[in-house]
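Today's session is about reading a structure prediction critically. Students often jump straight to the picture, but the first step is always the sequence itself: look for stretches that repeat, for charged clusters, for runs of hydrophobic residues. Only then move on to the predicted structure, which in these notes is written as discrete structure tokens rather than atom positions. Here is the chain we will use throughout the hour.
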Amino acid sequence: MFIARVSKGRTIREFITAVLLVPTCVTIIWMSIYGGIAIEQVVQGIGALGKDGLTDVPLAMFQMFDAMPFGAVLSVIAIVLVLVFFITSSDSGSLVIDSITAGGKIDAPVPQRIFWASTEGAIAAALLWIGGTEAIQALQAGAISTGLPFTFVLLAMCVSLLMGLRTEPKPALAK
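Below is the predicted structure for this chain, in token form.
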């Protein structure tokens, strides 16, 4: 719903490029560069990754950065990027929940949006405080296990989209 709302007025080609192709290409480039650096550090025995191997998965990226020039700067940039990702995801989730609870209204009252954002943050804080790592791992396992059945829903949606696009009249080419 969030992506559809910010993509209003775009063509299908623009939507697919901006939502599917560009993020996929950026991810492939990111993983190729930094994954290659990490593998090189392990093979050559450079830094904490090279000496101890992968001992602490959440810290692996920062261990890799520590062995690189400007490692502290790269770590700060990585933290900022992760924060932007989480804040954007939280904001879009709050927007969707707010719109659903407002009966589909796009311009729901601001206090209601603040309520949903605060509730979402409070639930995340409670999970971290009460359950710690185990709660997060259980939440991850739940998300992964619901992913497989949802894949079939997404495939059905893809087929429905193709069927719907075939019934649309083709636009006349501009001369």
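Discussion point for the tutorial: The CA atoms of residues 62 and 76 lie 10 Å apart.
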